[in-house]
C-alpha cells in the first residue's frame, strides 16, 4: 500500500528507534473504484442498514436497486447449497408473509455464474428451475427478468476461477438500464453491504436455532411425561411433530407386529380408540415407512420429483391429495422401532430445517415410545397376575363353601381366562352360514363359535409347556375336559335360555351340592354372568361396550344380506332403535341372570342395582336418539359424541330433582 511521508520539523536524535518514524507516516486511502454508483447515495443507504431484521434490510436494498436501475421490481434469492434449496423473503419493498422456499440443485447454482472478461455479468438465459420460481411469484410469465449472481466472499465484481460460490441472486424485473450497468451496480453495492446482510442473517439463524431447541426441549419433556400412557404418548408424539414441522397430517408406523397388537389391545373400547386420533399402522404394508424402518434413512420427497416410492404412496393414500412426504425413523438406541410420516407441509415443501427437527425427534420420540411399550407390557403382566389372583381367590371361596369341586373350579377358571379366544366379531348363528369356514369345520349343530373356542383352548393346552393339567390322573383328566367343554358351550346365550327354567328352579328351591345337575346348572350360570359382567359396571363402561356390540351387530347384519334374502331387521342400522335394543337386552338377559345369582349370594345384589341404574340411563337417553333421528344424525355417531354423556347426565339430574 502506498504511503505518504510528511517532512520532519526537526531531525530526531540518534538514540530514537527507527520504527518511531512510522508514526509520522500517513496511509493513503485506496480508491473505491466506483464506476456506476453514486458514493453519496451508497453512504446514505449504508447509514440506514442498522436494522436487526434481514427482511427490513433487504427491502431497503431492493428499493435502492429499483430506483437506480429503473426496474418494476427487484428481489434477492438466497442460495443454500447444503440443503440444495433457495428462498425469497422480500419482493420489492414488500415482505412476504411466509418465506418462499424451493429446491434448487448445486449444479443449477453453479450455472448462475456468468463471466465476460473476468467480469460478472447478467444472465438472460434463465434455467428452467429459476423460471419456475418466477412463475410462482408473478402472474405474468412474459416479463423480462435478468439476474446477477453475488459471490459470498467477493471484494470486487471480478470472477475468480476457483471456489466460485454464489450466495445471492439479484433479480430485476423489466429494468430500463443496460445489463452491464446493472451488473456493475450490483457488485459495487454488495462489496460493502453484503457483510451487514450476512451478519444479520447469521444472528437470525442463531435465534431461530435457539427457539427451535427450546421448542424441541418442551416437546421432549411432554414425551417423557406421558410414558405411562401409550395412547397419550402417541397422541403427543404425532401432534407435536405435526405442529413443529407444520404438516397437515402425521402418522406413526411400527416395525414390529407385536408392538402394534399391544397398542391395539389397549384400545379397550371404540370410544377410546376414537379419542386416540393418531393412526398407528404396520410399516410393512406401506412403501416409504417400510423403506425407512428397514434402512434407517430419512426420506424427503414431493410430487414434482421422480420417485418410485412417492408414486407408490400416491396409490396407498388415495383418500387425499399428496403433495409431499417427510418420513423419518423412530430409533431406540441402535434399534429402529418404527417410522413417523408427515404429509403435505402447509406451505411449500419440507426443508432442511424440517429434516433437522425430524432427526432430533427420531431419537427422543423413539426412546419415549420404547420405554412406554416396556411399561405397557409390564402393566399388562401385573394386570394379568392380579386378575389370575382374584379369580383364584374367588374360586377358592366357592370350593371352601362347598358349592363346587376343585376340578369344577379349575375348569371354570380356565374357561374365564380363555373366554373369546380367536373372537370373530360375529355370533354363532352367523357362523352357521353354509359358506363359512367354521360351519364346515364344526358339523355339530349350534354353538359354532363356542366349539371353535373350545378347539383353540385344547390346542393351547396341547402345546409344549402349556399342558398344566397333565398331572391329573386319567379319570380326572377326562372329567376336566368334559367340564371344560360344558362350561365353554355354556357361554352361548342360546344354551343359557335352554336351561333357564332349571336355573330358576335351582336358585328358588335351593342349591344341592350333591346333585350333579345342580352343579352343572350353577357353574353354567356363573360363566354366563361372568360373560355379561361388563354391563354391571358404571354407565360409561356400559355405553362403550354397547358401542362395540352395536358396531359388530350391524356389521354382521350387512354381511347377512349376502347370505339371506331376509336378514333380521334388528340388525339393520337404518331400522333399529338402539335404546330399546339395549334396554331389552339388559332387562331380559343380564338382569334375570344376575337376579338368580343374587338369590344365592347377597353380594350380587349390588351388581343387580348397577344393571338397573344402566337401564335407567338408557331409558333416559331415548329422547336424545329421537332428536338425532329427526335431524338425520346416525345413532352410532350420537353415542360416540362427547356431548352425549353430558346430555344424559343432565337428563338424569332433572329426573332426580322432579322426584
From TrEMBL:
Entries under InterPro entries matching the protein: GAF, GAF-like_dom_sf, PDEase, PDEase_catalytic_dom, PDEase_catalytic_dom_sf
Root EC class: hydrolase
Cofactor(s) required, per the database record: a divalent metal cation
One annotated Gene Ontology cellular component of this protein: perinuclear region of cytoplasm
PROSITE patterns on file: PDEASE_I_2
Positions of transmembrane segments: none
Residues holding Zn(2+) 2: 420
Amino-acid positions noted as binding Zn(2+) 1 in the UniProt annotation, renumbered to this chain: 419-420, 531
GO biological process: cGMP catabolic process; cGMP-mediated signaling; negative regulation of cAMP/PKA signal transduction; negative regulation of cGMP-mediated signaling; positive regulation of gene expression; regulation of mitochondrion organization
Keyword terms of this UniProt record: Hydrolase, Metal-binding
GO molecular function, one term: 3',5'-cyclic-AMP phosphodiesterase activity
One of the Pfam families matching this protein, by short name: PDEase_I
Domain PDEase: from-to ranges: 399-625
Catalytic activity, EC: 3.1.4.35
Similarity annotation: Belongs to the cyclic nucleotide phosphodiesterase family.
UniProt name for this protein: 3',5'-cyclic-GMP phosphodiesterase
Native source organism of the sequence: Tribolium castaneum (Red flour beetle)
